[in-house]
Specification:
Elements (H helix, E strand, L loop, with lengths): L2 E5 L4 E3 L2 E3 L3 E5 L5 H44 L8 H32 L5 H20 L31 E6 L2 E6 H7 L1 E6 L2 E6 L1
Antiparallel strand pairs: 1-4, 2-3, 5-6, 7-8
Helix pairs in contact: 1-2, 1-3, 2-3
């Protein structure tokens, strides 16, 4: 005589087997409810793992976008590194949009971490924390004009004659002449100071690079 049993899920009929749903059905002799329920649980677990895998992919993509949106402009815009017009324009476009992009992607990462925190192992929690550190750093730094950190004011500039200078022949300079007086400001030094107030031939000037 067949046995009846109850199991949760959606009713799905397949050749040779079935999965039941909120109903009582007859099982042939020798079959057990545990078998159908176990199969149902396996499908549930498989769907859950697939959903988690998708959201982990979203987390990774958001973290990469957030970090790249900060580091790419910082890498391209360097005082002593050659910059093509196209690369510089691209870096500035990223730099202008970085505050909002990094904020949005950082929020996505944070929401994911809050959602899964209670149901993951300690090792996955450590991984999430390690991911969130550079994400938070990038989101914060995208709101700071960190390029100004390398510029230091010069209170009183010191000059020497052209014959006594130790500049290489290929050294790039900013040159200013008023009347009989001239000044040369090495680009290598100006890149760190950005602006230098000076007086050349009695004329106040601001040399900048």
């Amino acid at each position: 005589m067949g046995k009846s049993f109850h199991c949760p899920g959606s009713l799905l009929r397949k050749p040779g087997h079935f999965i039941c749903a909120f109903s009582t059905i007859k099982a042939a002799p020798g079959t057990f409810a545990a078998g159908a329920y176990g199969e149902f649980k396996m499908l549930q677990d498989s769907d859950r793992r697939g959903s988690y895998g998708y959201w982990w992919l979203v987390l990774c993509a958001s973290a990469v976008i957030c970090i790249a949106w900060f580091f790419v402009p910082a890498f391209i815009i360097q005082p002593f590194r050659h910059q093509t017009p196209a690369a510089l324009a691209w870096a500035m476009a990223l730099r202008q949009r970085a505050p909002w992009v990094t904020l949005a992607t950082a929020c996505v990462c944070l929401l994911f971490i809050v959602a899964v925190w209670g149901g993951i192992s300690i090792w996955k929690k450590i991984v999430l924390v390690l991911v969130m550190v550079p994400v938070a750093f990038s989101a914060a730094m995208a709101r700071i004009n960190y390029f100004e950190w390398m510029f230091h004011p010069v209170d009183s500039a010191q000059f020497e004659s052209a014959s006594a200078s130790k500049l290489d022949h290929g050294e790039m300079i900013l040159a200013v002449r008023f009347g009989a007086e001239a000044r040369a400001y090495p680009i290598r030094e100006m890149a760190y100071h950005h602006v230098l107030n000076d007086v050349v031939g009695g004329v106040p000037i601001a040399a900048t690079y």
